[in-house]
Design brief:
This protein is α+β, with helices and mostly antiparallel strands and 334 residues long. It has helices at 7-11, 27-32, 40-43, 65-68, 93-99, 107-119, 133-157, 167-181, 194-202, 215-219, 263-273, 276-286, 302-314, 323-326, 328-333; strands spanning 72-73, 76-77, 80-91, 123-125, 206-212, 230-232, 247-254, 289-290, 318-319. The strands form two sheets. Strands 3, 4, 5, 6, 7, 8 and 9 form a seven-stranded mixed sheet that branches. A two-stranded antiparallel sheet has the order 1-2. The two termini are 31 Å apart.
């Protein structure tokens, strides 16, 4: 089952053997209710090195460890990453070159650049106003991390008392408010859908936009001739506690229900899907990044070159905005 509601199948006692239910299902609640199969024993077995051929080492060692960790609950592996998305900002290098602008690496540089962009008749920033999580993952949480480091983000996601009103969170929120007050957001962006705002960016109506690495695949059919997109990390706060190379990512969760009839077959299939030859082909054909080490060694889409490099440069400073999955009600409030 791929990207389909799995809840009713679980309740009805007819779960699929392997599933990617998408982002709408609370798979952590399912894991806590013992509805998902622990996969540690399988990960300690050999990887698939080709059609039905065992490779050297352990299967778990073929995954990027920072991504594998995101599928763990209480020390057990219930969810496996497949492809993953890198969050950040995007700009059109042709537009920036034409005007002599340099992509801002710090918030202070952003404040200095934005008036110049605005003076050129272009909105400095647009965003997907109908879907606030783009701003949450593109501005609020990265800036809270930049100001307060991993602890500020962890405390907020763990619902530590007062964490959502910590100095780091309030500073991040005030930065967004400052950009709005100074008129640096595209007028009317609050009412734009994801594709409307992204199209405005591609048409040169806005200089920068927050989005994940799915941007090119989502918009390639409507990209105007001569337009471009290039990835950049969200501008960081000078002197902040966070690692300036840190990167926010999200995995696409695959899992095996505990009630599956053919668990061994499901695991064998996913071993094949995550074998290096298949992973490389997936990257090249689907235009996304995979959770398998070395899968980006093939031909990458130009739009993925910088995100891939940024992911590697981040080292252990890789984190995820998990509260959306842990607390769906809180995500709606935020």
């Amino acid at each position: 089952m791929v990207h389909a509601p799995a809840g009713k199948h679980e309740v009805g006692g007819t779960p699929p053997d392997l599933m990617f239910p998408g982002w709408g299902m609370d798979h952590w609640a399912l894991a806590e209710e013992e509805g998902l199969e622990p996969l540690d024993a399988a990960l300690d077995g050999p990887p698939d090195d080709g059609p039905g051929k065992d490779g050297p080492g352990k299967w778990r060692d073929t995954f990027e460890p920072a991504l594998l960790k995101l599928g763990q609950l209480d020390g057990k592996q219930y969810v496996l990453p497949y492809y993953f998305n890198v969050m950040g900002w995007w700009y059109d290098p042709g537009v920036f070159k034409k005007h002599g602008w340099t992509p801002p690496s710090t918030y202070e540089e952003l404040l200095a650049l934005a008036p110049k962009i605005k003076a050129a008749g272009i909105a400095p920033i647009t965003y997907q106003g109908q879907y606030p999580y783009y701003m949450v993952e593109g501005m609020l949480m990265p800036w809270a991390y930049s100001v307060g480091g991993q602890k500020a983000v962890d405390d907020a996601q763990s619902l530590e008392p007062g964490a959502w009103k910590s100095p780091a969170m309030l500073r991040a929120a005030s930065m967004i408010a400052e950009l709005k007050t100074k008129g640096f957001f595209q007028e009317g962006a609050t009412g734009l859908s994801h594709t409307q705002s992204q199209q405005a960016f591609l048409e040169g109506k806005a200089a920068m936009i927050p989005c994940g690495t799915w941007l090119y695949s989502e918009m390639k059919k409507t990209m105007p001739a001569g337009s471009g997109m290039e990835y950049m990390l969200p501008p960081v706060v000078k002197g902040g506690a966070g690692d300036p190379k840190a990167i926010l990512i999200g995995i696409e969760p695959w899992m095996v229900p505990s009630g599956a009839k053919n668990k061994e077959g499901a695991i064998a299939l996913f071993r094949y899907m995550t074998s290096l030859p298949v992973a490389k082909r997936f990257v090249e054909e689907k235009g996304t990044l995979m959770a398998i080490k070395g899968s980006d060694a093939g031909e990458l889409l130009p739009a993925l070159v910088k995100p891939s490099a940024a992911f590697k440069a981040a080292g252990t400073a890789v984190w995820s905005d998990q509260f959306r999955n842990w607390y769906p009600a809180l995500e709606k409030e935020v």
